## 1
Amino acid sequence: MSARLRVNPIACKAHGLCAELLPELIRLDDWGFPIIEDEPIPPELLDLARRAVEVCPTLALLLEDDRED
Amino acid sequence: MSAGDRLLPRLLAGLDPGGEPMTLAEHVRTHGELPMMAGQVLIEEVAHAGLRGRGGGDFPTARKMAAVAACGVKRRSRGGPSAVIVNGSETEPASGKDRLLLSKLPHLVLDGAVLAAGAIGAPEVIVMVGGNERGALRALEGAVVDRAQDPVGVQLVGGPQGYVSGEESAVVHYLNAGVALPTFVPPRPYERGYRGRPTLIQNPETLAQVALIARFGAHWFRELGTTADPGSALVTISGAVRAPGVYELAFGTPISDLLAAAGGTSEPLQALLVGGYFGTWVAASRAVGLRLARDDLRTVGCSLGSGALIALGQSACGLHESARVIDYLAAESAGQCGPCLHGLRAVADSVAALAEGVASRGEEARVLRWVGDIEGRGACHHPNGAVRFVASTLSVFADDVERHRDGGCAARSAGLPLGRDRPAAVVSAGRL
């Protein structure tokens, strides 16, 4: 099963830590909000993705299993 | 005039646009008694009819009903019922069809809501209408009194009227907590909505169609329209036509027929906005040859949405009008999501600069980059609709952007309806 990152845009307050940790999958827009690659996270980046989720001050970053449906 | 013409009107049969709301007796005389049918039978009939949601989402109605019913079955084992919400917010300024249905033909909408409630096992129907829509609220109050025999309770709620307050999750949020702002999904309302219950949210026109399908069947429904887009639809046309208003037409009707039905154009057209402010500009030369069906509209990258069309005459400036619209949409952001709050404001300011001829050289490219960046990044679809509108503005009015760079624009305002200055009433309602 693969996983991908998703942001809750209401909770996100543009702290930007996620993009610092994981520039491979996350860049910031002109206002500092994250733009996340909508694709399964490569296995070698999974640990970094988990860390990015943990350090988000507003708990806006989510790691979600890809659903079958 | 199309072959399906003698089959219309359906929804608008017996309508007196300037008169009182249709009474229950008149309604039964026009359409017949409301048949009570088993839930599964109704859902299958709606599925065979091919009805899709008429609030702009285009989602197959039967699938939505079945999803709520399935969640309701799971939920009832734990003791909770499901709910039906009639979303009559109609916050799209260019649309008037739901207001027309609710204020003149309330029984048709309530029929559909009661049938849907029966089909998903909901004991209650909530009808949500903009709080300023006194005509609709008055008509519904009267209708509910006359329908004491209904097997489900009907509750009327006058809600807020901001552009995003009509969004599904915002409607549920308002009813649950008094806050008319979209929420982060999932859970979607069909899983957990009104008071945490599986909730079916439908547009008034969709439910009115359900009321007719229950009476006359899927086969009858498909006698109008195309195979992919069966049935009739309500369309609100405004702008440079002689008789703006709400019209019922068969899917597949050429746009040129709609313009003719609306009294013809009041001046030569330069473009049509298809799908309201979440919609797309189409150059008039391309638009008039199109039919109002998904297949045709997709070829120019648009959809009918909730059925609002605006005809823009040649004397108006498409760029200035669009700048006003995107400024309005930016102001109507719920302000919860950064990309929508900051992004739409930046886009609106840039489009205004392009319209005023004070933009810097890279302005257009920057707007297009923002359009790509903003899409899909809100909790609701508000930013998506807004940036689609802007993308079509820059494409259809590309020549105007060039002309404005040199400072030249002598066009007068076409006065597209925006928010509070939207027209108070639909002046005419007819049929093709």
## 2
Amino acid sequence: MNTLLAVIIGAATVYLGYTFYARRIDRNVLQPDARRATPARLYMDGVDFIPTSRNVLYGYHFKSIAAAGPIVGAITAAALWGWFPALLWLMFGVFFIGWASDYSAIMVSVRNDGNSLSAIAHQLIAPRTRRILLLFIFFYLLLVAGAFVNLIAQVLAQPHVPLGIIMLAVMGALAGQMLYRWRLDLIAVTLITVGVTLAAILLGGTVGGPVEGFFKGFNAGLNTLTAGQPVTTVLDPTLPADRQNVPLMPSFMFWLFGTFVFCYLGAALPIWRFAQPVNYIGFWITALTIFFGGLGAAIAFVIRPDLASFKLPAYVDFLGPESVRAAGAFQPLWPMLFVTIACGAISGWHALFGSVGTARQIENETDVLPVGGGAMFSEFTLGLLSLMAVAIAIPGPAVARFAEGVGSFLSVFGLPAEYGRAIAFAAFVVIVITVVQLVFRVMRVTLAEGLGDRMPAFRNIHVGIIISIALAFLLVVTGVWIYLWQLFGASNQLMASLSLLIVTVWLIATRRNPLYAGIPMLFMYITTNAAALVTAYNLWNTVFLRNLGVPGRELAVVGSGLMIFVALLLVGAAVLIGIDGYRAVQRYRAAPGPQPAPAPTS
Amino acid sequence: MPDDVGEGQRGGLRGLLQTVKEIMYGMASHDMTRYAIRTRASMEHLFILITMGDLLGVPILPPYYSLRLLPYVVPQISTWKRRMLREKDLTDALS
């Protein structure tokens, strides 16, 4: 297997899926009508409801849905089960389920006055469905925060990464000032801030350079604060037996808290002051990396054939690698693969965002497929690029393999490998950190809205952020990142199945063929509930019980206990929504169909 | 509409560049533009609520200046009412 073949498979999936399946469903089931007024035209207020060009909206929707999910999921799954199952799930997931979920959520919202999915669930299914969905969203955000912050801290602890990210924060604050206070030209601001950030990334990435030396010394200095002893040790049962006790060194804790400070600023400051300009600069860095990385992957087979062949095993084992099995962790390919790769195949976040952000700007109903479906197929290509990057790299930790792979793709254009790797590491952190700061922002709003009436302290933004950060910290120090990631994946995919449930009920209520949404909904519903239960079992068996009563492991016990609670809560909530959905289906099936118009009388 | 006809006729390299430009704008700046618009609208709508809240049933005593401002507010009243009275929930904060 090589990158050229993977690119051809990806292109064929997108072409066949979009042309022969998505268009067919669009034409025959949803039947968009360009003459029908969309909410953007009907309720145009120039703010939330505003007709927007399909090209602009495609870019907006794609950027909003494409985050770390397709990257991290693909590289984690490839390491657990091999690249072949990961590739199959990416292909079949997006072909039959992913685009259908995104597209349908937007279309249902467009046909329901631009209402959000939770509001539509309230009307179509039951009032409590909306409340449960909101609960779902909070814990989903918490899991996103925990999983992503852990990753960022691990990467930042490497000496060649921090300078670029520190400069991103500084340039972000400066860009906000230049754009909104000094009213400088956007292009000039972009050139200055993106240029300086990229220069810092390259400077930091110079192997054996002064910056790398400085951060090595800095980390070593931090570690001497505890005389080289860890702050605490966590048990990671998914690692080989001799490495399961993972020491959390002061340097790791420093970068963990540094990440939290970054997120705090993003969540507490006015959005124009920090979060938005940081995202803007981050967009250019990641877009350039992804564009040239993708191009490099496509032409590597011709220019550098040695870089193009896959080195990762195609298939490992149904139950995952030997080290995972030996540790007693249960990682069966079904259902765990389907939650480990979340966003590149299907994602609940897309549906949720599409129904409130994108649907209200759709100018014509015929734009929904290129915007919603098109953006999802594009995200699939991002997942595929990550899979290719990790598959061509030499063995090592997942994120390092990704950086190595993308660095190799960039080296096709003559960029030295060390700089390519530095850019890939930085782009990875940028993608993740820009999402996390917004996650904490939404979490504090969620806490204020949900609990503010009963407990006024939650209305204080600092209280909301600190509580959110403390909860995320508890999840991070459980030490088992894979479980945290899979639980996030399960919540994300469960939300996708619930959005498909809402779509299915709507299709039945409006007397349309519900199979294209109903069958994927059933598959995802069963699979993701099973995955959440397997993760809860893994946490109970390999983390909670093993740490219980061991001195110094109290945090791991509390954190894993919290994760088990969240997993069971999500399953319980999904079961309740499932019951309500089933009753709604029965209700709409029993209801009389649309009555024919009365015969004309003479 | 004339604009639509123009867009429909635009093809080739120029059309492709325009499409790429729009997509890049959508990715890079559309959310910033939306946020700026939303901030301005929120400020304006808050001001209208303070001065003309009685139109929505908010019990404020219409002051003298409300009457002076009324002609300027009239064009926005229907949009303002719709935005203020629209049911919202947490998911609206995601957009």
## 3
Amino acid sequence: MDSKRRPNPLFLPAAGLFLLLFVLPMAGLVVESLRTYVPGRIGSAEGAPFTAANYAELVKPSFAVFFFQTLRLSLAAALVGVFCALPLAHWTARKLSPRWRTLAIGFFVTLMFLSVLVRTYALELTFGAVGPLGPALRAIGISTNSRGYIEILVAAGLLHYIIPMSTLTLLATFQNVDPRLTDAAQVLGAPAWKAHLTITLPLCIRGILAAFLFGFTFSISAFVIPMILGKGRVLFISNLIYTRFSEIANYPSGAAISVVLFVLAMLLVYVMTHLVNKRWAQ
Amino acid sequence: MTPRRADDIIRFLCKLMNCAIVLFLLTPIIVTTLMAFDARDYLGPLPPPALSFRWFTAFFSDSYFLKGLAISLKLAACSVAISLTAGIATAYATDQTTFRGKDALIAFFLSPLVVPPVVTGFALLLFLSKIGVIDGFARLLCGHIIITIPYTIRATLAALSGIDRSYTEAALILGATKRRAFWDVTFPLARTGIISGAIFAFAISMDDVAVSIMLTDAKTYTLPIALISSMRANFDLSIAAASVMLMAMTVLLIVILEKLIGLNRAIGQGVFR
């Protein structure tokens, strides 16, 4: 075949779409984030003076608290998610017959694909204040309107996606570990837990880290889950961007928050692809 | 404590944890399904005393939801058609040749996958207002193209790279034009991969909230947006009925994917299984 060196021009339609719908909007976002905000105006004025005030404002406690909240809940959800997925993935990979394994994989894939709206609605309906479990929860002394419970509910929403996703990631990881290694350790007298802790876990560390980082990235950009389950009391960075747009129409501030969230997500993806893959590539 | 005893305890704890997790994952789905068939007109304790289809009827007689559903389907069809065409062309162009920066170009084409959707939506909102696109459907279409196109590119690339180059070369040696070799040999071989990409893209478009909520207007809204705004207004069980139908759609798509590419082959494939 000819023209091996030059890209085929057929990629140009997609490149055009990306330029128009992705590159230019993202560049516009950065420019907007540096514009001065004029209250009462929708969007910044053409040629409004440049300022760093939109970013400076984000380190104030009233804003920083949302960033802190997002990071805290995301970190907790990603850690708990990986911790829960470990035994589940091991059980699916090693203890189930092929037929049941296929069924289990189908179950996890379906849960992963489940519409985020269905997921949040189902969780709110089951564990929320108006749901059928509400009276039972109140009977054992849990207030469904307390801040702590709402935070747990948001984390549960994130976990309902993170657990199936991490389980599938770790499933593939476990299947690449030779079970004869732990068998050998046990034959030589090590208890099973010690064999797993010193052999299986170190061999799977890449998969575990990947699952954790994926869960964390998913969580910090979550939008619908905190919006519905947080009931306006637990807000994530994404929700903050939306309220900047929908409630006070402060576009420059919304743009600045977007840029920060974008940089945060890119950093995590960079860590995920470079550090995790390169470090353990061999 | 003997090592064996410790193992037994840990094994038991792991089993207990697995059961608790599966219960946590399943309970909301079962509760929602039960509630959707609830015959009462208020939210009462489980189990419902009688079952009925009243909430499904309520969903289908609500013009607000129906309009959202119609727009969602139209939007998904249009955005999948556009991103599939552009995606196949891109994947074909990059798969065929090697050039400097090819990996970077592919990474760039897949990058919308890792940008938080709210950021994509907000950037598009600013940009489209600035260049004066005010038609609601056009705005939504722009958003949905950019979130679906990485899926079609990725699936087509994977399908094309799995094809033995010698089939296409054989067709070319036998005198077929490059176009004919593509449509008669390469495309049929890549078809299942391309279809699975289209299914992914369709599901993503039907499910999106974060991008759509930025680009929607009072008259043009998708089904998820309609559901989310009525979810915040009141806790109507016709949303449970809609959820059951969306779940059924998810299961259907998974079954199609399983038949097409085989979930076990795509995911549960390790060296030591």
## 4
Amino acid sequence: MENNYGRPPITEAVVEFRLLAPVDANLVQRIGTSFNSFYPRSEDLQEIEFQIGPAGAQTRRTGLVGFKRTNVDANEIVVIKAGSLNIAQLAPYPGWDHFIERVRRDWKLWRSKTNYRDLARIGVRFLNRIDIPHGAGEVTFVPKDYVLVGPAIPEAFGDLKAYHVNAVLRSEDLRADVTLNSGTVESPLLKHSSLLLDIDIGRIEDMPKKEDDIFEFLEAVRLEKNRLFEACLTEDSRKLFL
Amino acid sequence: MSTRFSVVSKPRPASGFPLTEIPGSTSGAISEKLVQDRYRSLSQSVSDAPKKESAATLEQKLFDALVNAKVSTSHVAMHLENEWRQRLFRQLDSLMAIEDWDASDAPLEGNSFSTFLRTILFLRPKRAPGLGMTSTGEIVAAWTRDQDRLTMEFGNADQVRWTLSRVDSGGRERAAGETYADRMEQVLAPYFPDRWFER
């Protein structure tokens, strides 16, 4: 459905595979290298430990936890850690067919390197930013004119300047949780205001094991994500993506 | 008490849309604040590193600046035509090629590039500009039509310095100024900027 828009508001799409048992650090290194031909640029991911005590705060680097690899245009990303594989697409979003093809390619490579371990979670997350132009002389807008997710606040409080809503809902059909985030965000465009609409669908039970089942689930998630996305929008919002 | 976090040690551009800071679930590994200890090319030989330390550092800085610019562009990519974006990336690749780099120059400033993007998306010129950089890392855009030239130098926080030179029946006219990106339209209006911006 996102392909119907000329300018889809998707700023980041992510598919996550999380392992039930993490692999060891050496294997993480080898997995990272195996993605070299698809993502030539690599960045080490390190973890830092903070200790807060009577003597103040101390930090200690605890080691490499994985790799973030990107393509030449820095909009196709894969994050490889001991316990997970994240495949992400930044804007411009090329459409689901293109994205899921890359997911399948990377998943196959990762699964072969991790020896087909069981999954603990499969998730799909789409972050959308709706950029709303200010009218002539107008610097405010009513969020609910664009996104049908927002806080319920008594009118006594006056004009809404900023908000953030977080909700977790259940999709029994998918046997998955749906996490919805929406709120105001700083707009990267002049004379615009922006709203975030972030939909995450993740499953942690009855995990599919076979490739066909996994990708069938992802396809079902995609349809549900599109349905929910459309349910959150107004016509004024849709006009912005044409 | 010990608390474990993952953090980003590398500063991100001051402006732009910090998507990766949004707390969340699926993209946790991406959303987490992760230390960018260093970008590196896996193809780079580790044994070469000590003797090429200064060159490697410069290469790394240029690479970081280039990636930051491309990620900043991705934040607004839905508002850019693909052709425009691809041309911009080719220009950036060329601008920050280490082979032609003067080591005394600063890499591209993220804030300057953000001002550039905001200005371009506000003015929406149909003709893409030629791009250059100052020695302090600020990006410069130039449009030329016959003998007429318009140049913008992009600073921090939406500041734009501009100069123009145009010829009409009355002779040559030059003008220059400094303003904010959202004022550029009004500031340029007396000089008929379509001569530069239209195809």
